[in-house]
Design brief:
six-stranded antiparallel sheet, 2 domains, alpha+beta, about 25% strand, Glutamine Phosphoribosylpyrophosphate, subunit 1, domain 1, single chain, 18 helices, globular
């Protein structure tokens, strides 16, 4: 059995929370189901009935973990949930969130989307003071900081703890009488506030609200903390204000196309705009435009719209592959890609083809796709990418390869074209990407394309992260 490792950045994590609904756990399950794309390794839900916390966790997909009998073990009108893709810490049940503790201020559960660049240093300090960690995830550092804080209220301890961490965090916490959500001052990862009649909700993306019929109220602002309790919603801005650095890759690849993130229009429309801009910057004479499904579909539609070249589905994706597969003993050409994608020879035969994808990471999958298209009869294959070359790893909540594994960091575009065997290759420019994205161009983190990280690293952090 072999783990499928696609040549893509991996999704980070999903968080969800609800206050004041008699079916809180069921709605959390549905919210996590809608957010499955953000993490597929494990999932957990913690509910509260006002006296006790109830917790269920499992490895695998949401629909497989939460059966009717499992959800019945999660009573109470408030709950939080988490889907995990490991950006820090190994793949085992101990690292599945929410993390729960009981301390001087009662019960507390935490779900975290993001990555803390000073987590190891804080962990070393905490362990020196006697802290005992139950997991290897960086998220647990925040709970220990809350426990060690000298704040005289739970809220002051939460603010104190989150003021000490550096990096990205969209966190949802469950207490005995509230759900608390907070976003780091740069706003790297998305976090949204919603409403369902008299209940209040928070989620990584608005698609979670759509599934359960809730209204998306607004984005939780960078640096904002909100408390959902019997009094409704109370907002705080407890952190030092800084320039936003929202992850532009959420628009390019991560977020579901039907979500609205960062308070703007649907992701789908932004991806189409990226494709139109790409057609303007890198035109080519061709017969058809095809996407690499599914993530390349909106950009390919935009490219077709902008270029006037007909859109076709030349690659069909198998949506039902599991996380592992049995590899045949007999070698099958391009097996790793063919299990997910298959070319339609009737669409491709004799055609000059523009194939649109959202990114190239290592280049291995793009190379196999180009060869597959030629094998299916394509006369020319022109690769177009709806983002700039990726040259740097991410340290803010995305699981990325090391710099040396990123083909864009060590190869020119012409060298990449030769490696993937395409007739031509063009990327969207940085300026074009930022201008096609909603909002203010300077309010995005684009470190994976520029190596300009919004949070400067200390020498100790550089050593810890292997940047020296």
């Amino acid at each position: 059995m072999h783990l499928i490792t696609p040549d893509k950045f991996h999704d980070e994590c999903a968080v969800f929370g609800i206050y004041g609904h008699k079916e809180a756990a069921n709605l959390t399950y549905l919210g996590l189901y809608a957010l499955q794309h953000r993490g597929q390794e494990g999932s957990g839900i913690v509910s509260s009935d006002g006296e006790h916390f109830h917790q269920e966790k499992g490895m695998g997909l949401v629909a497989d973990i939460y059966t009717k009998s499992v959800l019945k073990r999660l009573p109470g009108p408030r709950a939080i949930g988490h889907n995990r893709y490991s950006t820090a810490g190994g793949n085992n049940l101990k690292n599945v969130q929410p993390l729960t503790v009981n301390f001087a201020f009662g019960n507390l559960a935490l779900a975290h989307n993001g990555n803390l660049i000073n987590a190891q240093m804080l962990r070393n300090e905490l362990e020196a003071y006697g802290a005992i960690f139950q997991s290897s995830t960086d998220s647990e550092v925040m709970i220990h900081l809350m426990a060690h804080s000298r704040g005289d209220t739970l809220l002051s301890r939460i603010i104190d703890a989150l003021s000490q961490v550096r990096g990205s965090f969209s966190v949802v916490l469950l207490t005995d009488d509230a759900v608390i959500a907070c976003r780091d001052p740069h706003g790297f990862r998305p976090l949204c506030l919603g409403r369902l009649k008299d209940s209040w909700l928070v989620a990584s993306e608005t698609c979670a609200f759509d599934l359960i019929g809730a209204e998306a109220v607004r984005e939780i602002e960078p640096g904002e903390l909100v408390v959902l309790n019997q009094d409704g919603v109370k907002s705080y801005m407890p952190f030092t204000k800084t320039e936003p650095a929202k992850c532009v890759f959420e628009y390019i690849y991560f977020a579901r196309p039907d979500s609205k993130i960062f308070g703007d229009k649907a992701v789908y429309l932004t991806r189409k705009a990226l494709g139109r801009q790409l057609a303007k910057e890198a035109p080519v004479k061709a017969d058809i435009v095809i996407p690499v499904p599914d993530s390349g579909v909106p950009a390919a539609l935009g490219f077709a719209e902008g270029s006037g070249i007909p859109f076709e589905n030349g690659l069909i994706r198998n949506h039902y592959i599991g996380r592992t597969f049995i590899e045949p003993e007999q070698a099958i050409r391009h097996f790793g890609v063919k299990i997910k994608l298959n070319a339609v020879s009737e669409v491709l035969e004799g055609k000059r083809v523009v194939v649109v994808d959202d990114s190239i990471v290592r280049g291995t999958t793009s190379r196999k796709i180009v060869k597959m298209l030629r094998h299916a009869g394509a006369r020319e294959v022109h690769m177009r990418i709806s983002s700039p070359p990726i040259v740097s790893p991410c340290f803010y909540g995305i699981d990325t390869p090391t710099k040396k594994e990123l083909i864009g960091s060590s190869h020119t575009i012409q060298e990449i074209r030769k490696y993937i065997t395409a007739d031509s290759l063009a990327y969207l420019s940085l300026e074009g990407m930022l201008n096609a994205s909603p909002g203010i161009p300077g309010h995005y983190c684009n470190a994976c394309f520029t190596e300009k990280y919004p949070i400067p690293f200390t020498k100790a952090e550089e050593m810890q992260l292997g940047l020296f």
